Amino acid sequence: MRLGKRLASLVISDIRSMTRACDAVSGINLGQGICDLPTPPPVALGAKQAIDDNRVIYTHPAGIAALRRGVADKVRRLYGLSYDPEGEVVVTAGATGGFAAACLALLDPGDEVVLFEPYYGYHYNTLLTLGLIPKLVPTRPPDWSYDAGELERAIGPKTRAIVVCTPSNPSGKVFSEAELDAIADLCERFDLLAITDEIYEHILFDGCRHVPLATRRSARERTVTLSGFSKTFAITGWRLGYLTAPAPAARRIEVAHDLLYVCAPTPLQYAMLPGLALPEAYYREMQAAYATKRDILCDALADAGLEPYRPRGAYYVLADIRKLDAASSKEACMQLLERTQIAAIPGTSFYADPVGQTLARFCFAKEEDVLREAARRLRAL
Predict the structure, then answer these.
(1) ∠ at Cα 124 (8, 301), nearest 5°?
(2) Which of 75, 281, 349, 364 is the least crowded, having the fewest Cβ atoms under 10 Å away?
(3) pLDDT, tens only, 108-122
(4) What is the pTM of this model?
């Protein structure tokens, strides 16, 4: 059988392969961001009610009108941004689905796209799959700052976009207003598109505040903002996200999303309506719970000699795994799985730079008792 070459260099991600290896030993999966926490009852009941009401046929490609209005209301209330739910909001098959649709709709093969490192692997590989060229700009611990000069030097004649992930997967970096302003200025000066992944917008620590890039300078008119419900409501398998964008971009993305996915899952769209109506206390309690879990994991990693870089957002932590004295980050993670039955993700999943060989990513979106058992096993190292 003769196969095409487009995906020949891509393999199943280490995130997936480590999950399989973890399942094989019935281990504790701190690798993949599965987020196996309880679904908020109003959201679960909303899905059940939609199924009982037989809301199961295709929706508008951009999503049901009520959910688009709900998203527009949320964005206006939280961030002061105004988007027309009839032409500037698209409900997507997850934030990754929105990212793929946006890149397909707005960029052409051969275009260069600036991506901050460490990067989310699905961003990087989606760009490669579509014939786009990632241009990597490093962010460095402990605060994951980037060099403004390096960012500007990464922009060339073929550059068309900058991708920003804040709060970041995997580093937990929360971009500052000054950093966002600098990115907004570069986008305007070089006529670039900005694509921001803000799926972890509600998971923040240490008094951090989420600031969308679209609120800075004139960035709204050239920014596609991706977010969703998977992380906020612990429903990662439902594959439900959304994006906001200026009307000309949103119309093209809607066409691409229709081509790729037809529409997001219908009954689950209806379930998001009671989700968006949850009180502010839900978000405060979620942040407090994640802060506790972050500290449980980071303290255990530090005690084990796997020095963690404490995140300011999202629910992952990168840790220095050189103490395991392995030849590679993949070998270190396999060694860790063998010794403790805990899965982590090799840092090379998020880096082209060799520094990825010294790191592993751990996820703390777990029930607290599971996380405490993982902490006990880590300290036993």
Answers:
(1) 115
(2) 281
(3) 999 999 999 999 999
(4) 0.95
Residue 222 contacts residue 196 (beta carbons within 8 Å): no
Residue pLDDT, tens place only, 205-240? 999 999 999 999 999 999 999 999 999 999 999 999
Is-contact 305 378, C-beta < 8 A? Answer: no
The helix or strand, by DSSP H or E, that contains position 362, with its residue range, turns out to be: strand 359-363
Q: What is the pLDDT of residues 131-142, one digit of tens each?
A: 999 999 999 999
Question: Distance (Å, rounded) from C-alpha 76 to C-alpha 82?
Answer: 5
**Inter-residue contact 220 to 214 (CB < 8 Å):** yes
Reported as type and span, the H/E element at residue 368 is helix 368-379
- Cα distances from 26 to residues 23, 337, 340, in angstroms, run 5, 10, 11
- 111, two tokens: 């275009």
Side chain identity, residue 321: I
Whether the CB-CB separation of 270 and 280 falls below 8 Å is answered with no
Around Cβ 10, how many Cβ atoms within 10 Å? 10
Integer distance in angstroms from the first to the last C-alpha of the chain? Answer: 48
Element (H, E) at 189: helix 177-189
Strand partners, 225: 196, 244
What are the structure tokens assigned to 174, written together?
A: 């929360």
